[in-house]
Structure formats: structure tokens, C-alpha cells
Amino acid sequence: MSPMTISWVVFGCVFAGALLGMALRQMLPEHHLSENSKDVVKLGMGLIGTMAALVLALLIASAKSSHDMQSTEVTEMSADFILLDRTLARYGPETKEIRSLIPVTVANVLNQTWSADAYRTESLDRALGAGADTFYKQIQQLEPRSDFQHALYAQTLQISMELGRKRSLLLEQTGGSVQMPFLVVLVFWLALIFASFGLFAPTNSTVIGVLLACALSVAGAIFLILELDRPFQGLLQISSAPLTNALAHLGK
Question: 116: domain range?
């Protein structure tokens, strides 16, 4: 289910809670709406509001942390590609064929990861995996002849292993960090809070308009959290600029 669809579901649940509260106001006996009853309801909703704020903060922090981590890993991969190309260039002209594989791999990552299609784990796996197998076979055929080439050969292997590690990290993180049970409980609490608003609010167009705007704001917040949780697509996707810049510097 897309973030937009989930956000509209959240909006419907929250605003329906407010309308339910208004309907209950018309049905309940007057003594149920006394000042003492209002005080108890306010205390209960204050407790639920505090818990909802904590869960909302947890979801924001989790999604933002995951988004930033994957963005950093993409930037580090870009730097590793450039460093790998420079290291092979220093090794000697016999690495020309191996170096030609690096731009192809980066271009595949850009085309398959930042495409119009929904981001999928196998896209990144396919983009890096096929090129990595060929690259390792070519590396194994190198025969260092001097201490300098031995040092560069070891550095090339180290950078290659680091690229493989970052690729595995990105693959493991594509499942998302926002847990659906947290989101369901949060929406339930928000619906209860809005029901309490409608229970004691006068029924007029101004109040309904304000509650509508508040429900839209809540749905918007959930939408942004879910967008953060899918960093390779949507409005808040990770920038492909680091890899694009790396591609422009390769082979020079």
C-alpha cells in the first residue's frame, strides 16, 4: 500500500473519530456531559495524547535515521567507486579493461535504482551483483610485479570488499523501518483524541472545518514519515547526485 493511500486511510479514521464524537454528543444524556465528566475525559485524552506524541516521535526518528543512513552509504559508495578507479589507474595500463567496468556498474545502479518504477531490493542486487562478479574475475587475473603494485592490488581488494559490504547493508535496509503495529496503534489513539474533541465541541461549520484541517495535518505528518521510510522513491528520495558526479569523474 502506497504512503498516499495509507495517509488517506489515516485521515478517514481520524476525522471519522471526530464525527463519531459529535454523534455521541447528540445521543448521550446531559449528565454524561457534565463538567466532572469533561475533566475525566480530558485527563484520559491527555494521557493518550502523551503516548501518541512519544510514538509519533519514535516513528519520525526511526524513519529519519534510516533515510540518513542510506543516504550516507550511497555517498560513501560513490567515493569508493572514484577511489577504486584512481587506484587501478595508478596500478598500470593493464587495468584499462577492468576500469571500463566501473562506469558501466555505476550507470546500471543509477538506471535501475532511481527509475520511475517502484524501488525493489532486486534492482540494486542486479545492478551491482552482475558487475561485481565480472570485476572480481578480472581482478584475480592481475599479476603484481613490484611492491608498489602489490600495495595497490591489496588496496583494490579492500575497496572492492567495502563496496560489497555497503551493497549488502543497503539490501538489508530496504524493508523499511516503520513498523505497521506502531502505526495502527497511533492511528487508533489519534481517532480517540479526535472523538473527544467532537464529544464536547459545538456542532457548527467552524468547528468541523478546524477538525478537518487538523485531520489533514495528521495525515500529512504520517505521509511524510512513510515517504522518509522509502528513500529511493517518492518525494523525499535520496539524491542520485553523488553517483552522477562519480560517474562524471570515472576514467579520467
Answer: 3-249
